[in-house]
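quick one
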Amino acid sequence: MDLSYGAAAEAFRAEVRAFLSLHWPPPSDTRGAELKAFIRTFRALATGEGYLYRAIPKIYGGSEQPVDVIKAQVIREEFARARAPMEVGGNGMNMTVPTLLEKGTEEQKELFIRKTVEGDYIWGQGYSEPGSGSDLASVRTKGELSADGKKWIINGQKIWTSQGMQSTHMFMLVRTEPDAPKHDGITYLLIDLDQPGVTRRPIRQMTGEEGDHTFCEFFFDNAETPVSWQVGERGQGWTVSRTTLKHERASIGGADGLGKQFAKLVDLAKEVGRIDDPIVRDKLTQIEGSVLSHRYSSYRIFSCAAAGEDPGPVALMMKLLLTEIGHEMALLAQELIGEHGFLEPAGAGGRSNRGPRGPEKWLDQIMGSLGNSIAGGASNIQRNIIGERGLGLPRDLAMSGER
Amino acid sequence: MHFHLTEEQKAIQDAVRGTLADSWPIERIHAFADGDEDFDRASWHALMALGLGGMLAPDSGMGLLDAALVCEVAGEAAAAGPLIGQLLAVAAVVASGKGDAEALASGAQVATLLHGGSDYAPSARAADLFLIVDRAKGVRLVPAADVTIEPVKAADRTRPMSKVSTPDDAGETLFAATDPMTARLADAALVLVAADALGGAQKVTDMSVAYAKEREQFGQPIGRFQALKHQLAHMALAVEPARALVWYAAYAWDAELPDAPRAAAMAKAHLCDTYIQTTRAAVAAHGGIGYTWEYGLNYWFRRAMADRAWLGSPAEHRARAATLAGW
Ligand SMILES: Cc1cc2nc3c(=O)[nH]c(=O)nc-3n(C[C@H](O)[C@H](O)[C@H](O)COP(=O)(O)OP(=O)(O)OC[C@H]3O[C@@H](n4cnc5c(N)ncnc54)[C@H](O)[C@@H]3O)c2cc1C
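structure w/ flavin-adenine dinucleotide:
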């Protein structure tokens, strides 16, 4: 075993560093619109060097690089070290672009990829509905062809759309074949959210967050989208929605975040004078056992990806493991903050200009840990996936539509 | 980066697995468990014949990771014999230049591990040598003749224990307490016990999954019932990611990284907890049959209890890990 990346990667690292030291950060007086423009130029330069948007063809604004998870990781590490902006994040880069690259038409790729890469289009994920969460294939939002066959007319409701308030577009699953079996009657559509048939309403989250960070519900009342914005075949939306980003996805970044959070928990125990408490020390190291399991397993998955090997069932476990660790950390944090737990943490939702916050800021984390146990497939669904796909246990036939 | 097993490493594990399956089938475990022996000569010699005894000799081209992979399979099989002591004895003897490394590596001489401060050693009656690893007093190699052995009725029937006592000056000092090798050997022992626990936890999970696929109730395999499916998923979730914790601890030891002692403590604590949790869940997943002696789960459950008690409890190692972190 060897956790180093090898000489070639280190030479590449030096190259990336040299690039960053030349082009980042911006001069200290760059602010506002000027900063935005600077970042845009910087991203374009970095793309020109082959550092960003590596999986995206040049004609759509990417740098079209061969798959190399090690290089991609070196880039992530060096950009993070320099605090330089990476690719624009979010659903667009994570979901829309890979889906279009694999299943989209030439017209769709031209229309959407560059705009998404440049941050002009922001995508909401329109999957969940009030009646369809875990049972995602039961979506009921209706899509019907217009009389001239050129447009889809959409009626229904989507819910829990993250970043819904900022989204310019949505990719959504709609039922177009009401008589077909559940999985065969769904079509994958792209839609412009800026039109009269679309109403959005923010939903306040349990953290109290409002505004940018909250999720939304969307009402579609004869909203329209061109038939040419349908991705994949009509009725094949379920299959299209399974399309995932295969390029350079493996990273050890997720584990870094967890490690930092754990380090903060240790700091909290010190701050509140409880670090010498044997029970706290025991609980901390107990949690750390799982944190490190997660970290080293991410090395393992990353290492397999670099070698083109299948890491096996461990890859199916990372989300649930992360969720469970989050819960453990939340419980200990809650214990540690004691009576600070009476205070409102004043979330990240635009009300944080109340001056410095004390240990009560952990309440955000504590409540936030619950979001992870639901979003992107609830924990029970993760357990089903581990049991069925990981351990080969028989599938419950009634539940074949879960996400 | 290379943080997964090589084909050679997988092949070694397969070879050990095959050998132990042949020489140490469940009928043999049953007979051994009911008998009064300390040691299963047949499975021990079959294992030693694979030539793995010298894995921890510095010039073997292998290292603690490879040794851990072998101990993992031994844990899976609940194999008898003082494998961990034997592997460490070779490391200690070769590094100190004292003792007969060849006889130990071939298994002709049997060495068992006596942890400093403990009164118990596994397979003591079969041992020619006792490797005493004591963080506070150093490492000594004591011939059996100098040791008083009193067999006890051990809970872990696969690795019978004896109460042993040795005079303080018996045998030969291989390393002083201040010699870095003393701490390194003590750390390596922790990693190898963690590996044994990993193998056992994986084994009982596999047994449970296999059983859930074949056992039918209410007209269907019980593994289709979500409550049980989720319990099995949780067992797997406890074991599979923790595998990397053992790998890392072994890798850190081999590479002599500064966090190797802490990684060893974390692995020992975490895996011994995981093992006991998983075996408890395995018995539950099997229902009544799991509670029988005959079915055999009890051997792994007992071994989980022994692994947990051996070389210091999880809480003890977590306390050490907290201190080593500088908290
Ligand atoms: C912070 C956050 C952000 C989100 N962002 C988005 C987004 O951007 N776009 C989007 O489309 N959706 C989004 N969601 C929605 C999320 O995907 C769903 O909430 C989730 O899939 C669960 O669906 P549900 O809420 O309908 O719960 P339900 O499916 O009703 O589940 C309720 C409970 O029943 C359990 N359950 C359901 N079915 C089974 C089963 N078969 N076996 C065992 N247990 C079961 C679940 O585990 C859960 O505990 C977000 C949710 C959150 C919390």
